[in-house]
Amino acid sequence: MLNVYKHSHFSADAFGHGGNKRTAQVTELLKRSGIAFHEANFSNSVATRNKLSPYLTGIGYSRSFSTNSKNKYAIGRYIKLFERFIEINKPELLLWESTSGYNSLLAEILHKNNIPVVGLPHNIESLVTGSKSMFSNKESPDWLFEELKYLAYCENVFTISREERWLLSNAGIAASYLPYYPTVELEKYLLNIRSEKQRLNKPLKNKKDILLLGTFYNKPTFDGYVALLRHIKHQKSFQINVAGFGSELLENMFPGENIRVWGSVSNQTLQELIIRADLGVVHQQASSGFLTRIPEMVLAGIPLLVNEDAARSSADIRGVNIYRTFEELSMLLNDKVPEMPPVLQRPVEETFFTNFVKAKIDRGA
Fold it and tell me: Considering its fold, how many domains does the chain have in total?
């Protein structure tokens, strides 16, 4: 049996934030397909008493004057950490979700040791506004080609959005599309909410309930919803509910009877908010990756209004209505509420992913 490892910088939690959800999806797919693997543990096991050796390794790796001494030491320490992991655990295949920060070095170290890597980036990090390279200190998007260099070490890169697969393919990197879809447990939870919405079949109120849901610690999401709320905060014909991790950051920014900020909510409260909602609005500044809440809200039965930047890989999802301007959004909000969207089907790309990994294992990687 091949010695397979997987590493993510997030824990697998189907009810957590977007990163947790993607890791939960990948973990469940592997287990459901009977693919045995170990979770790689890169604990701080490298002795730090001799700091000169990692520092010299870091200098040898990064000769850029823009990389400070602290970063050079960290680079050297991570290189030694990954080399030690290979020496002790002898991996024969690694499924690599942690494609950002110092963990980028992992693919290069594995490649140098002839160990195949399958990439599963949660997003192209260098295209996220405000992100910075650990190696050159460049800010986004100027370090895109640095990031592509590490992804190119992979046998195949399974992206969460079609746009990223297209980008990597144009850079000569083997890439496939693995769309996000909730775990079986979360899918059941969302479909139960849909059934309850159908059962209640509420008559349309004079004041529509609008739900804004997201992870507000994510800068493109935070900035997008701030811009949205500034535009619609005076429209008294809506009751706007804002919920999700970090949404409490908005609590004092938008006082008003028609806006309620719920903060991080329990599953029970989230269920109640979704059942109550007539529409969901998803508004994000330009970024990479994919918004996991889009298919989840559609599964739960909420018609969505989504701006162009947020609608990555979502244009073909029935129930997603894309708007380009705030004026267009206002027209859609004041129009009649769209019908409940049909249930999403589990994507066939999940089977392609697991078959690819199985084939690697059967061939001895």
Answer: 2
pLDDT for res 271: 94
Q: Which domain holds residue 353?
A: 4-181+347-362
Please write the tens of the pLDDT for every residue from 315-357.
999 999 999 999 999 999 988 888 899 999 999 999 999 999 9
CA separation for the pair 309, 316 (Å, rounded): 15
φ and ψ at 225, to 5 degrees? -70, -30
Give the model's pLDDT for residue 151. 98
Q: What is the pLDDT of residue 117?
A: 98
The single-letter code of the amino acid at 32 is R
Which of 334, 351, 231, 210 lies closest to 281, judged by CA? 210
pTM (2 d.p.): 0.93
Does an H or E element contain 329, and which? helix 326-334
Q: Can you tell me which residue has the tokens 């018609």?
A: 303
In a domain, 76, yes or no: yes
- 197 in the same domain as 172: no
- pLDDT tens for each residue of 258-301: 899 999 999 999 999 999 999 999 999 999 999 999 999 999 99
Is the Cα dihedral 103, 109, 113, 114 positive or negative? Answer: positive
**192 shares its domain with 233:** yes
Q: For residue 90, how many other CB atoms are within 10 A of its CB?
A: 11
**What are the DSSP E strand ranges found in the chain?**
4-7, 38-39, 93-96, 117-119, 156-159, 175-177, 208-213, 238-243, 259-263, 279-282, 304-307, 320-323
Spell out where 237-299 has E strands: 238-243, 259-263, 279-282
The dihedral sign for the CA sequence 264, 267, 273, 279: positive
Tell me which H or E stretch contains 111.
helix 104-112
Give pLDDT < 70 ranges for the chain.
Answer: 44-49, 63-67, 203-205
Closest of 81, 70, 74, 73 to residue 55, by C-alpha: 73
Q: What CATH number is given to the structural domain containing 176? A: 3.40.50.2000
